[in-house]
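Appendix C reproduces, verbatim, an entry submitted by the partner laboratory led by Prof. M.T., so that reviewers can inspect both the input and the predicted structure.
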Amino acid sequence: MSEDQKNQVRQTFSKNSNAYVTSSTHSKKSDLDQITAWLQPDNSWTVLDIATGGGHVAKELSRSAGTVFATDLTIEMLQNTAIHLKRQNNIHYVVADAEELPFLDASFDAVTCRIAPHHFPEPDRFVKEVQRVLKPNGLFLMIDNVAPENDELDYFYNTFEKMRDASHCRALKTSEWEKLFRNQQLSIIKKELRQKTLPYREWLERTLTEEIEQDKVDLYFTNATDEAKKYFQFNNDLDSFTIEEWMVLCKKSE
């Protein structure tokens, strides 16, 4: 099941590689500035950006960190990103599985991963790998969409994400992520839960091109409960909707 899911990720992102470079959601400058503000990297650092996608975080980090390794599971995505970031000479590109990183223990001063872990079949393995490749006292910064703590809203959210994107595995709750971090001795030193409003049509069409499949997602939204419509802040016009995004900074113990 895990390998089938990863093949689905490769298929989805190889078809849509340029959409993630140009995506307004993924290229949001305030997010990227906040990553630098929280990490405060300097030119002595070697940093790993996991599931780099369009390379927005890697590009941001390359302005201050000495060396950045940008990894992705999908070679087509990585090749397209490398073309867009060709002026950044301190970025190295490596095809890599987030749950089985091809790096030695204690290799990085910091590890980042943004808007990607919901694609990982085994998030516990991902967190274990992050802990392994971090140096003692190294920093891990993650940003991802998270599910509501309410089980019914969690189900609604992860269902429509899966309908829209077959490579979606599951967006975890913040409580689930916190447990995974504790299990790997990654101490949370800063966190922020914020609302993120997405343009519905751009979000839908980034991964779903067949009109009949788009109509199914439209119908799922319009048939939602009043509680779901209120929580995710949408109406039947479907101009936009709002989800929760979690930004968290952890530190590996010595």
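The longest strand covers residues 186-199. Additional entries are available on request from the coordinating office.
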